[in-house]
Structures are given as structure tokens and as C-alpha cells.
Amino acid sequence: METPRGYVSTAAKTAFVKRAVFSVGVGAFVQIAIPIIAMFMTLHTVMGQNLGSRSIDPSRGAFWKGAVWLVANPGVALNPDEPAYTQLLKWAPDSEDPPDEAKLPPVLDPQLLATDETLWIVGSDVVVAMSAEATVPVRVNRRLGYTSEAFLLDGRPSMYEIDGDRLELHAFIDGAWKTSEVKDLPVGSGDNLNFYKLAILDTPSGPMVFARGEEGIHYREGLSGFATQPIESLPFAVKMGVYATVWTAVVLDGKPVLITLSEDIFQQKIEGFRKEGESFEKFFEVSSGIISRMGAYPTDDPGRLLIATEGMPGSITIFDVRDGEMVKKTRLSQSGLIPAQTGTGSSLLSNAVGVIMALIVGLMISSWMRRYKLAELRTEHGDLHLASLARRGAATMVDSLIILGPVVAGWFLCLESNPFDIEEHGLSELVNVLKFMGAASVWMIVWIVLFSIMESRSGMTPGKRLARIRVLHVDLNPCGLGRALLRNMLKYLVDSMFDFLLGILLIALTEKRQRIGDLAAGTVVVNAAIPRD
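Predicted structure:
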């Protein structure tokens, strides 16, 4: 039987092909499997710590007895046998400790309201009154329909309800919802009254209604007629962009205050406006990350306002604003979803595993090639003294260090600011990452072109010169710029798959030790010490 070209024997070819394919397959499997396993382990830990993904709406929180109080509805329970409950969070703003947690009986759609002596937890089915002495849940006498957010009026939990074409004001008195006022609405107007755009404050001078219009927030003093008067005809308070929908209103030091969120998604800003005379004047501005919901809580200290925001579900950040200046920012709880660090860590692990596996597989195949394959091959154009896999690997590492070294270093510098934490930075850091990636792409393209020019002239890049190998056309003449560009582009687009395991396998199995870039360009890599003629 004729000996296969490039091999010492037929048996050697069979043994080598089996070993090379198996080792590359195992290497590729490990590259894929280990990062996936690591991510699942991280997710299991994260989900275990967060008890599933829970939702916390800061707009439904309150400040009471020197602490911020929030309610959290659990998402998917890890233990289906665990009874349903409503989670109550209590956090002291001057404490470094995490919030205290307590479980209450289930409350549907809970909202917190605070008076001096009572913290009300108002739900559509249950109202809970908490005092320093006791917690008293009261099953309501009837469930209300389409209602506004609960608000305090004369110290009592109150809310508006639309019943057909009637607007009813309900107050919680003596353990039951009682209707204190009924207004007839024009036919069909009840369908257009959007309670989600309303906020009602109990100010020292009387109730004040805020309503979100097309261009911003309008207001009126008193409750009379607010449901029938067009929003745009009300006095203008604060202008907001069309897509800026997150806002809230509170009473701070006896004055109505509007807190709005800008519509700039790249760098959002929380802005505070205080009523001074007949207008609202901005008195603070705070940069923030991505915010989906927001609540504001005046404290017992004059001029001090705590603003709670939710980015991803269950992730709460509190801004401490005093006399118009932000003095402290606290990440109160993390999201039950995948943290930004998880994706970054998985990417780093994947890259590290890939490089290590490529080195191990490359060294194994290189040793087998010395044992089973011939380095010299006679062709119609002359004898080819093919470069070893070890030398080609060393040259590739040197050239990759020149091309990718600054890129990798810059990438790690980008990661120091944790740019994927959009709750902290918004999208501004991601924009910087995109700019860096653009600059890195230009850097790599420039060096690939330079290396191609070098290979078209001398056949050598810096790495190949150190390894004493060169690129030639298969006829043993210089390959030219076009062929050099083609082989180098395919090197980083195709042959680099699985951290060059694909290129290693093709070099090992092809007769002239050619990867895809060499096959497409018609080039070979030979020892530089051999004359080209």
C-alpha cells in the first residue's frame, strides 16, 4: 500500500487523524461547557440570594418613624409550598446595615401611607394599620374598581374611584371604605380619566392635584372640578419631554415639590422643582442610571428628601438630597435578574479557558505531527520545508500580542467602571464602550493591513521573523498584497474560531499544513532559512 503524502506511514495517518480530531473536539467542548456551567452556578446563587425576582415599586413607599418603608411582592417562588405573603422592608437612612424584612399576610396591590402615628398599608382587598404598639389588618368591606393611587386627606387614606360616569371619593373610616363625595361626570369622560397620570397632595393650604399632560405636568389647587376640566387648561408646573413618564409629587417643608426624570436615556437626571409663589423653580439635579419607577419621601429633618428608584425589578437605589444637594447614594437591594458582573465574569472565564485549551491542544498536536507527519514535501515547484505548528503558534502569539495586546488592556480598563451596570451609569458608559470598540477595530484593521504588506514583500511579520518562518505562494514566490490580505482576514474571521482550534485542526490535517486562509489565498508557510528557489 502506498504511503500517504506527508505521513510516515498509513498507520501513522490513521492514528494521527483520530487523535487530532478527538483532541480538537474535546477542546471545543470544554471551551463551550465550562463558561455555561459557571454561568448556571452563578445564576443559582443569585436566585437563591434574592428569593426569586421580586418587584418593589418605590412610588408606593413611605417614610415613617425615621425609616424608609417599602413593600415587595415576590416573583416566582423557589419553594411552591411556601404560603403567599407580602414582604415589608424597613431601612434606616443613616445606617450601613441592609434593610430589615418582615412578612405580612398577602395584600393585593399594596401602597404605603404614613401619618405621625400610623403606617397604612392600603391594598384593594386589605388595609393594614401599623402603629408602634400593634399591626392590625382589616379586610375591607368591598373591593373597589378603577381607582386612583391612595393618598392622605385629612389624615385618612383616601382614593378616587370611577363607577360608570360617576366619580366617587372614598375615605377609610372606622375600618371601612366610606363614600364621602359623589360627582356626576359628563357621559364618556370617565373612560378618558387616566388615574395613572394623577398625583394628589394634602398640603397645608389644602389639597393640590397634579396631572401629566402632553408637554408636562399641570396642577390645580383644590379637588373641585379637577376630573372634568381638561388637563391642558390647568396652570403649567413643569415641562417634560414626550417620553419622560416617571415623576412623583410630595410636600417638603410645607411646599409642594415635583420630582421628574429626564427623557435622555443615555444619561438620565432626577430633577426637583419646588413651588415658589406662582411658579415651580428647580432646586436640585442628580444624575442617575436607568430608572423605571421612582418615589420620594420627605424626612423629619428640614430640607432633607430621600428619593428611591427602581431600575431592574427588585433593584432599589436611594438618593439622599439635603438642601438641594445630593450627599449620599445607597444601593439598597440588587435585582434578582442577572447582574452585570455575571456576564462580564463569564466572558473573561470563556476567554481564559479558550486560550488555555488552545495551547494544550496545540502542544499535543504539535508533538504528534513530529511523530507521524513529514515536514518536507516535494511539489512541482520544488521542495517545501513546511513550518512546524509550534513555530506558527509562536509567531501567531507574538503578532496577536501586537494587535490585541492594547485592545485587551483597554478592554480591562473599560470594565473597571462596570459599564454594563445600566442602573448605575445609564447608557453613557455603554456609549464609551462602543467608541472604544470602534477605535479598537480601526487599530486591528490598520495592523492587519501592515502585516499583509510585510508578508507581501518579505513573507514575514514580526512574529514570523522571530520564529524564522515566512509566507509564500504555493509556487514559492512572494504571495502579493491581495493574497496576504485575504489570508489574514480569514485568519481572524474564520480560523480563529474556538480560539484558533479550527485553524490548528486544518493545519494538522491538510497536506501542506494550510488553514482556511492559506487554502483560499493559495499560500503556504515554510521555514525562512530555506531559499525560495
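Summary: Residues 47-52, 187-191 have pLDDT under 50 and may be disordered.
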